[in-house]
Predict the structure.
Amino acid sequence: MSETLALRARALSAARIGDLLVRDPGRAARLALQWGDWRIDFSKERIDAAALEALVAHAESVGVARWIEALFAGERVNLSEGRPALHTALRQQDDTPVRVGGEDVIPAVRDTQRRIRALAAALREGRRRGATGLPITDVVSIGIGGSDLGPRMVCDALAGTEAPPVRVSFVSNVDPEALARALAPLDPASTAFVVISKTFTTQETLANATAARQWLARSMPGAALGAHFVGVSANVAAAGAFGIEADDVLPMWDWVGGRYSLWSAVGLPIAIRCGPDAFAALLAGAAAMDRHVRTAPLAQNAGVVLALVGWWNARWLGHAQRLVIPYSHALRELAAYLQQLVLESNGKTVGRDGAPLEAGSTPSLWGEPGTDAQHSFFQWLHQGTHPSPVEFVVPVRARHPIGDQERLLVANALAQAQALAAGRTPETVRRELAGSGLEGGSLDAAIAARVCPGNRPSTTILLPQVDPYHLGALIALYEHRTYVEGLLYGINSFDQWGVELGKTLAKPIARALIEGTALPDDADASTRALVAHAQALFAR
Ligand code: F6P
């Protein structure tokens, strides 16, 4: 299999994407997928039908279909932690039992969904009141990583233009500037906090939640502050110990990974900000994508094919980066969300069996929304010396159309994909400069500066619009794609041991900066000097 893939990669390395499109009029139809009214076009990738066939055969040989089924069935696909990863159960639309350790988890999921709905409704209808009897008008969500990025991105995507019944803001960073800015415009008497932490041990979240409680207590001394706090955690006891009333702690479970958890009570801010019906529609959209990924043959399976194309670009064509460019203001947080989803899942050096990965792991991922990105780093994409694959995510219809702007936006996305593939040849530029008065060396230099090499791969995902249903489907598509890419690399996509080291090392440094204690003997000279310098600055 690898031999065929290597051969195709060699052959295609010499091909020009623009020529492939011209020479084969059937290419655009063949190298595209239709899911409902979505179109996923990968005909501008450096790929052909033979390569795709070999990729699908590879997916078959590593058991992708079996692993997808294992995910849905609640098998322990998170091998290093011995757990299932059952984010799909959180959005399952019927009550078919899904068992973890023999116990059906669906009743607990439904019960939590009822509590999310009730809590969100009480807040939105002004029935949840603070310690002084005022209705809650503002909710601050405190969490970080998977306990922040999903709900933050979705709330922003669905925000719209109408004033919400309850305003929701997000604080994640331990930098006090984040909390200070969030609290500055708020009235403590009508503000509540949703503290989200799967472990309820995360330093940043606990520091912010503690500071939030002090802020409330300062303005309402002696008041019972219970009504101002809701917790979301798999560590219900720790949330209780923090002082959150048992009735106000919504559970999550160790069979859901943090970065896959927005479908659980971690999505409470979404239900509060956008309404419980929008949250339910988000889940329904994700469930529709789940059905597709679980049942579609590999070659027509959007999650699988996108994963194969991503793996092909990285593993076989050697691209070390990948960009996701949503042509959508509403999706401006998508890349930040995907950075955690993809890089925390698949940025590893060893495989599921603990052996070093033979051929690396996922490339880096970054992006910004178009059209802004066109006026920022697209120069690098078109003429830079590190050609990098791009995914254009293009919701076609705007929620608030103004004149022709929605069409203008889509036109720009399609033009950028076209430009990356086709480029601009010296002959074209020479024709354009005819009559400019330039000649000789000046003309040659002007031509060289304007030529775009083209031949740069991209995929375009056209979807109808950003609404709860389609957004749910889009996120689920990326989740599945991430999982399948992990399978292709041989990675367990559900652990994240790499982030632990920094957390451990921060503790003695924090003690040194807060209490003045000595650093451990094994602290390096650079860190010692930096700590000393920071201490001096704090002492000023
Ligand atoms: O930093 C890693 C991480 O464990 C993420 O995976 C997780 O989403 C985040 O921290 C927050 O963790 P918690 O929800 O336990 O506070």
